[in-house]
Amino acid sequence: MMLINEVLKEKYEAQKKLLEKAENESLDYFSVVEKDVKDLFSKNNWKLTFAKRKGGFIRHSAPHT
To answer: Which candidate among 2, 34, 44, 65 keeps its CA 20 to 30 Å from the CA of 27?
Structure first.
């Protein structure tokens, strides 16, 4: 139970930081999240596509090197 509380606390803090970032950049929350996800995938050389029919992002792993 203690571990769950810590994870929820971290999730809350991360969402709070994203909301503050959105407010500072005069963007909506979901635009900031989308940009951060795209940046993360780009840094890891992962292919990221958006599928409206499937309701969101689809991750494609990079080839193993």
So the answer is: 44
Q: According to the model, what pLDDT value does residue 26 have?
A: 87
Residues ≥6 apart with Cβ < 8 Å to 25: 32
pTM of the complete model:
0.56
Tokens of 44: 């890891």
Across 10-45, b (16+ Cβ under 10 Å) vs e yields eeeeeeeeeeeebeeeeeeeeebbeeeeeeebeeee
pLDDT over 90 at 33, yes or no: no
19 in any annotated domain: yes
